[in-house]
């Protein structure tokens, strides 16, 4: 089992990266997943999608995207950790998903994790569910996670209050369910019924 976690904040030392590392530890230590890699968008390491990328032959893009593409292709599931900025998922997350193809993440389990400094966090989840799966064919599971009051949770090895205890238990449950979906969808990909040659785009 191989899992990719996208840390979607453009900022260094972000709360999204903290949450991503916590999720990584849950997958490894509690669920015994052997390989869990984090792809961080801190400092905008990936350029915006452009004509050179779409040409498929640009050497600059091959150097930037090919290592990421290889990881995504090998992964069984993708966790997208997105901050909520002004009620939105940031541009880096949307750009990343624009670059992803169905050959890389299609028919693989996706888990959305929203990170909010306050008590919000629902808008990025609705946004990503609505418009990031048509062509990529990523299969977001019905469950999602919202880490609210993010600066004051997941900072230590143990929960600091009852609300954080509830959050940690919810994270453990949701990540376990996500892994079950990841296993199930592997059978779909191996079934031979997916036809990206004739149907490369969604409707």
TrEMBL record:
What top-level branch of life does the organism fall under?
Bacteria
Query: One short Pfam family name for this protein?
Result: FMN_red
Q: Where is the NADPH-dependent FMN reductase-like domain?
A: 1-144
CC per GO annotation: cytosol
List all membrane-crossing ranges.
Answer: none
Q: Name one GO molecular function term.
A: oxidoreductase activity
Q: What is this protein called?
A: NADPH-dependent oxidoreductase
């Amino acid at each position: 089992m191989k899992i990719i976690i996208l840390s979607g904040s453009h900022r260094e030392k972000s709360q999204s990266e903290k949450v991503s590392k916590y999720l990584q530890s849950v997958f490894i230590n509690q669920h015994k997943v052997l390989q869990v890699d984090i792809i961080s968008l801190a400092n905008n390491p990936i350029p915006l999608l452009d004509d050179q990328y779409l040409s498929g032959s640009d050497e600059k893009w091959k150097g930037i995207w090919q290592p990421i593409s290889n990881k995504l292709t090998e992964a069984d599931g993708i966790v997208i950790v997105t901050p909520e900025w002004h009620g939105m998922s940031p541009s880096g997350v949307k750009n990343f998903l624009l670059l992803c193809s169905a050959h890389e993440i299609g028919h693989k389990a996706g888990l959305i994790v929203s990170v909010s400094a306050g008590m919000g966090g629902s808008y990025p989840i609705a946004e990503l569910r609505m418009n990031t799966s048509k062509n990529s064919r990523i299969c977001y599971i019905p469950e999602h996670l919202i880490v609210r009051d993010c600066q004051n949770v997941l900072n230590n090895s143990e929960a600091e209050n009852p609300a954080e205890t509830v959050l940690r238990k919810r994270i453990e449950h949701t990540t376990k369910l996500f892994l079950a979906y990841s296993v199930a969808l592997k059978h779909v990909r191996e079934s031979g019924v997916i036809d990206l040659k004739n149907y490369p785009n969604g409707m």
